[in-house]
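Task card 7
Instruction: Convert sequence to structure tokens.
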Amino acid sequence: MATPLRILFLCTGNACRSQMAEGWARALGGELVVVASAGIEAHGLNPRAVAVMAEAGVDIGDHRSTLVTPAMVAAADWVITLCGDAHDHCPVLPPGVEKRHWPLADPARATGDETAVMASFRASRDAIRARVAALLAELNQRDE
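Output:
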């Protein structure tokens, strides 16, 4: 990629899925991407998301939960929505901004004991990593 690709990950509360996607895109994309994440609302960073990403060697502990702004959308080449709420309430995208929807279950809604809940967060982390890696590979091939 000649110029960095600008990706915005959008979710309901910018607490889990979009934060993990931002962390993976930074870790896997390096200087090839400029990455941000935001939410339709700001729910605060989920500590379980921070923990499972740290297990995988990606530190998102300094991320902040932020509301999406028109400027964030306008600055993006790609907007990736990670839940139905964000998909349905995504701001109108300017011409040239591409959108992709990844309908991923919210690990924060997982039920059961702590082991089961953390297993849900790990499954989300791994699914998001696979999708981010595939997206980066696809976009890199387009620029070759």
